Amino acid sequence: MENIKEDFKNLDLTVGDVFSKDARLKARNVNVFYGSNKAIDNVTIDIGNKEVISLIGPSGCGKSTFLRCFNRMNDTIDSCRIEGKITLDNENIYNEKIDVVPLRARIGMVFQKPNPFPKSIYDNVAYGPRIHGLSENKEHLDNIVEESLKRAGLWEEVNDRLLSPGTGLSGGQQQRLCIARAIAVSPEVILMDEPCSALDPIATAKIEELIHELGNEYSIVIVTHSMQQAARVSKRTAYFHLGKLIEVGKTKEIFTRPRHNQTEAYISGKIG
Amino acid sequence: MFNFYLLIGIIFISLLFFIIGHNEAKNIKKINNIKLHSLSHYYGIFVLLASLLPSLGMYFIFTIGDDLLFASLIQNYVPIEVVNSEDYNFTIVLAQIKNSVEGLIFGTPDQWVTDAAEVWKSWVYQSQILTSISCIFTAIISGFLGYRKINHKFRSRNAVEKIVMSILAVSSIIAILTTVAIIFSVVFESIRFFALIPYDDFLFGTVWNPQFEGAERAGSGQEGLSQYGAIPLFAGTFLISIIALCVSVPIGLFSAIYLSEYATSKERAFFKPLLEILAGIPTVVYGFFAALTVAPFLRSSGSVLGLDVASESALAAGLVMGIMIIPFISSLSDDVINAVPQSLRDAGYGLGSTKNETVMKIVLPAALPGVVASIILAVSRAVGETMIVVMAAGLAANLTANPLEAVTTVTSQIVTILVGDQEFESAKTLSAFALALTLIIITLGMNFYALHIVKKYREQYE
Amino acid sequence: MNKKRITPLEATNTVKKSIVKRRSKDNRLKLYGRIAIGLAVCFLLFLFYSIFTKGYPGFFQYYVTLDINFDRDRIDPQGDLSDNSLFDGEASKIVNESLFSIIEPKGRKAKKQAKKIVSSGKDVRIAKMVKNNPSLFGTITKVKFALDDDIDSFLRGYIKRETPESERRISDKVIGFVDKLNQDGRITYEFSDYILKGSASGNPEMAGIKGAFIGSMLTLSICLLISFPLGVATAVYLEEIAKKNRITEFIEVNINNLAAVPSVVFGIMGLAIFISIFGMPRSIPLVGGMVLALMTLPTIIISSRAAIRAVPPSVRDAAYGIGASKLQVIFHHVIPLAMPGMLTGTIIGMAQALGETAPLLMIGMVAFIVDIPNSVMDPGTVLPVQIFMWADFAERMFIQKTSAAIIVLLGFLISMNAFAVYLRKKLERRW
């Protein structure tokens, strides 16, 4: 905690308090390039323990790219290059010795479009515990699946058809299935990349409620294009613009008293 | 040469009509100073088409028709005692006469053959005159009729477009005609074959020993020796295809997995075309390679191991065929693996799967129908492949599962029977058509099934 | 106890425990993939290596240089350089005399064996030389003659001196003659006159691919003339004009099926329809080209349709917007823009047709034809069929010539495909 202020520069770029007292994830001077294009420019931010933080900003501002840095999903893109440091519990996740597999097991992710595997609901949820060898036996696995589905608020709706394909569910159910799948491997952090953008308002409300509940147990980073959603689900909000982190602060404050004029322009609808 | 000159003549006439029509249109415009409906060259093209198309149609009717007509007329010139003789066969007689017409004379033909050939020649001469006159006449008359239509109100562009559209429509019918021709050419001869040999003997018989009719005529002591049980051929085809699959499926599939999931884009850009070269090599080259490099190698290494490998073995043909179909499996599988949405891979990686787990537990199961379809297509390619088996698998119709022995296949029997001089109407010649029919049914069936799977698979992700 | 929830810490520890095993499994799959590609590439290289090492010597052969007395009276008895006159002449005798003066065979049997050292094409060679250059008459000129294929094989080391005389194809005496010629420095190993300029021949030392090559070109031109216009017309009709209904669907199904029909079946169709019913002659490039055209048609149609589909609708809309008719849009805009793709497909189809053998066997292009075909109505053969026929011959030299012919064929195929790739890269537009 002490030396944290020394290992980054150019803090003046960002308005507000980027630090968190009980930080799990710390990003320091992160730059992301696609080929020669700079997508993320010198971003520094902390993600606190059991904290729900929203990343907002106009489309193309790099918020999703930044989110994908936390579990190294950008590794799958050939042309993508990352500079800077991101630590999970003070361990640099971009260290060469770090294996992405356990990292991603600790940092789960939910995607923009619900993407259940073309398998049964049960197999979808059981996939993670199976590949990681988390369950001791079949009964235990059943428990994990049931527990995860319950926590994702889906159990009541699907417990009679666990063996039917996950792709047969409605969009909102599919997304909750994806959340259940993510929490089945007991992650510490969950990244959500616009999880409601493909859903109708009722399904969105359910997911938001779920995020709210999960926030008591996990650190959740949620990217959203909807300011209302950010206001509803998160305590903290970070505003991105053209790859730069403009302002971070308590959600309430950001939306009521933005300090940076660009944030204000976005909140008031001048940039969109 | 006659045909060539006639065609040139017809084209020349229609080009003349183009100039006439074009000028006429320009004149109307100039003299009357009125606007034509269409651009002037459309009038020229209209007259050209009006002259060219009917005369070309006429030409093709004559050229195709005259041979058929002569063939039926010439029957009258075959002496009655020949017709009544026991082994009379019109196809053979016709071939004799035609050979004589073309100046191919074997031995001393009967007088009536020479006479008939003379008559035929005179018909050909008459038909050439008739064809030329009627084609050129048609070209001029219909061109003139087209020319008469030219006036400033005539919508020549619309007329030309209508004609061109119908030409385009007619060309697309060629595909149907080809299919009909294939079915027609195979089915009729097969029906005749099954009239001689019961179909269950053919489909379920275990001995394939076709003999020419000459060898089994009554009294030669060879009668009834021919047997047309196709099981050994099917078994041989099956055996070679299985060997080929054993080579190509693992190599093709693992290559596809590597190229689509592990390879860098540079590796992919280099190796993918390299693998596809394998598909571009002519089959006769593979056949040569199988017969002169692989087979002797297998034979010598077999003798080192104390195995007796036939000089033409199913193994050699199958191995080389396997190499040939690697790219079919690899690029088709690559396509279907790439068609699996990236979001599924992301979901896998997001949960912390390794690449292996993502491929084996998510991508491959999702792509499975497509992979199966690509394997079926490869099998159908292997079943229909001809040159490799003709050159490397041999002709011995052994019913065996031993890959070290020589076997024969459906395609290699077709080639052996139909290449060179055939005896018309003999069960042996006809059997090739029956084999071809089964070959078509098998390959098309597999193709249909594979395309069906692929279609369903595509729909799943659209 | 199974009811317990796994804490993140437990999960992390479990994952860490198994990770080495999972990583090695992952690397194994990667290794399998590499091995598979490596194997395929090895097969390819080995195939090329084996063809090339066998075929490279096929472009060369052994020649013997002899001093020939161009005596006009003996070579051209009628003095008019006509084929008849040259045929009546004693060119072979002169060659033999020159040969005998060096190796001095004793007795009739030895002479008979000695004559066979020089290829039987010697008189044709002399006839050709004097026809091209009558001023040779009256001179004594050094002329190179191909050696007989057995001698050639001996010089290459395929027939071994150590083999007992009864088991090899040439006698000790002949070996003695060859040694003598060698001591005189008269035997040379050079680029073969025959492989590229000669035609089919029963004598391997004189066999060449010119006839088959011309046959291939004639067949291919017919194929191109038929399949390109038909293929493009069909593609245009199906993509731009036809409404989607049962008939067009049926046509599409037909095209897809034709692409799957084994090539040998097209040969059977050619035999049954073109030859038996239409009464066209066998073995001619015209029929061969027609059969190959029908065979390559699906390839051309499918790629042309893809090319047409790649032309963006905005181009069509723009043209319609200024009042162009449907055909004007098609001929002025769609076809020119789709042309690179169509040409690429056509070249690939032509390459396929150039390498095709089986259907041409069916329509009799397998006949042994010495004459070089002059038109599409002359009997002829094509390169792949020539390869097939030569591969069947027992003589050692034919194996080399076959491989040499394969090198030529592969050279053409590779350059055609490379050209197609170049065309696609060069002319392809990205919309």
Task: Tell me the distance between the termini of chain C.
Answer: 62 Å
What is the count of structural domains of chain C?
2
Biggest beta sheet summary of chain A: 7 strands, mixed
Number of domains of chain A: 1
Topology:
The complex is a heterotrimer of chains A (272), B (462) and C (431).
Chain A: E1 15-16, E2 23-34, E3 37-48, E4 52-56, H1 63-69, E5 80-88, E6 91-92, H2 100-106, E7 107-110, H3 121-132, H4 138-151, H5 155-158, H6 171-183, E8 189-193, H7 201-214, E9 219-223, H8 227-233, E10 236-241, E11 244-250, H9 251-256, H10 261-267
Parallel strand pairs in A: 1-11, 4-9, 4-10, 7-8, 8-9
Antiparallel strand pairs in A: 2-3, 2-5, 5-6, 10-11
Helix pairs in contact in A: 3-4, 3-6, 4-6, 6-7
Chain B: H1 2-32, H2 40-73, H3 80-84, H4 90-101, H5 111-148, H6 156-196, H7 199-204, E1 208-209, E2 227-228, H8 231-262, H9 265-280, H10 283-304, H11 314-339, H12 342-350, H13 355-384, H14 387-392, H15 410-418, H16 427-460
Antiparallel strand pairs in B: 1-2
Helix pairs in contact in B: 1-2, 1-5, 2-5, 2-6, 4-5, 6-16, 8-11, 8-13, 9-11, 10-11, 11-13, 12-13, 13-16, 15-16
Chain C: H1 8-55, E1 60-69, H2 72-75, H3 83-88, H4 91-103, H5 108-115, H6 122-132, E2 140-146, H7 149-156, H8 172-183, E3 187-191, H9 194-197, H10 210-241, H11 246-260, H12 263-277, H13 285-310, H14 313-321, H15 326-355, H16 358-362, H17 383-392, H18 396-427
Antiparallel strand pairs in C: 1-2, 1-3
Helix pairs in contact in C: 1-18, 10-13, 10-15, 10-17, 11-13, 12-13, 13-15, 14-15, 15-18, 17-18
